[in-house]
Amino acid sequence: MTPVPTLRHGLAALGAAVLLLTAGQASAQITNQALIGDAVSDADASRYSDVKNAIERYGNRDIVAARTFLETAKRKNPKLPPVAVMLAKLHALAGNANAVRPALEDCITEAPDDPEPYLILAEDSIRGNRTIEADALFDKAVKLMQEYDANAKRKRDFMIRAYSGRTRIAQARKKWDQAESDLQELLKVDPENAAALFATGQILFVVDPPRAKEGLAAFDKARKINENLDHPYVAAGKTFESQGKSSEAMQYFQGAYKAAPNDESVIVAYGQALLKDEKVDEAKKVLTAGAKQHPGSANVWLLLGVADRMGGDLDQAEKNFLRTVAYAPANAVAYGQLALTLIESSDDEDKRRALNFAATSQKLSPDNPDANITLAWALYENGQSRQGSALLQNLKLGNIDPDSTLLLAKVLMMNNQKEGAKRLLTQALEDKRHIFVKRGEAEKMLAGL
To answer: Per CATH, is 1-190 categorized as 1.25.40?
Structure first.
């Protein structure tokens, strides 16, 4: 899978993260820094006591007094955001979402040249997947901020948010030239933005492979800023993988392992790539060495278990999946793999355990279609076909892995729906994005149809 860059966009995370606070709770949790920190560098200084008073009045449900204090603060320091913007942010921070837009409408009347209302509305549109609306709002904000000179700190924040948002839209629409252009504008004002650098590297590999050295340099710089990002060669490999270029991707995964054989994330990425390519023995060598170097890595043990399943060693697969959940008790995938391993047993107790593990996986990830399909299959195999059918009838199918597609094909075959099963098996065998543990079984089943 291609890493999705999380570009910094100011208040964009606000709506997704706000808690439904009461007004009293709001006054205790909202700070000057949260409210005006993007406009001034010393938000908690005594000179901004009027802002603090506004927060307190807001917490007491006295919106009129809160606005009055914000107006006083604005008169004392014109560099603060427009009063209506500060009030809109207060509403958002307090979880009063319905009051945000009316406040922003007031701002567009009171301060028509301020870009922030358009940015806030654009970010809200992105969260709601209203990209046409978001695109227009970001464009309006960019036009306004080109003339804006009231506060350099705010303008810098506007630019980061606007170009981040426009990049996300351009990437989604595969308008790579526009995405690269916006990223370059973003990096002019925020050259240490790791996510923007990482996204630049991805785009260079997608749009212009001859510029691979530039892309690797961008990945490298990004990782130096944020060590949690992928190794440059792994990032390149995943980017090629997302484009369906498996041979190019494998070259970079191999290069990453050669350059950094002790790096846990590299071991996991290379091991996963080898399993996708069905090079099980090679993957086991890489992952076994990785388990010795990183004995507490849940991801390494998980992939080792998958390799064992692919090699037919179900006892060892179970042990490795149990190690996985020992290190990562909330790993829904590991519980699902345990279920799929044990359900193949002829022992009724193992099948019951499989059902329990499948239920745990689904409980940990209730909206994941793979977890739901695994649970449905475990129900079928434990003689609870009615419950399994009911679960599948309510299932929202999305991006499921080929092993789940195979299970759905088996359900169709149980109901003598051969044409539907054939379509699903063909779909599963054409899937190159995921590891396919039971590819051999799917090929044999399709040949029989």
So the answer is: yes
Dihedral sign for Cα 282, 286, 287, 289, please: positive
> Does the structural domain 193-260 have CATH classification 1.25.40?
yes
pTM for the whole structure: 0.79
Closest by CA position to 180, among listed 206, 216, 210: 206
Instruction: Render pLDDT for 379-416 as a digit per residue (tens, 0 to 9).
Output: 999 999 999 999 999 887 778 999 999 999 999 999 89
Helix (H) or strand (E) holding 363: helix 348-364
The mean pLDDT of 338-357, rounded to a whole number, is 97
**Ranges of CATH 1.25.40 domains, the chain:** 1-190, 193-260
How far apart, in whole angstroms, are the C-alpha atoms of residue 139 and residue 137?
Answer: 5
Q: Which of 203, 240, 201, 238 is nearest to 219 (CA)?
A: 201
The residue written with tokens 């790539």 in the block is: 273
Question: Residue 394's CB: how many other CB atoms inside 10 A?
Answer: 8
Residue % of the chain over a pLDDT of 70: 94
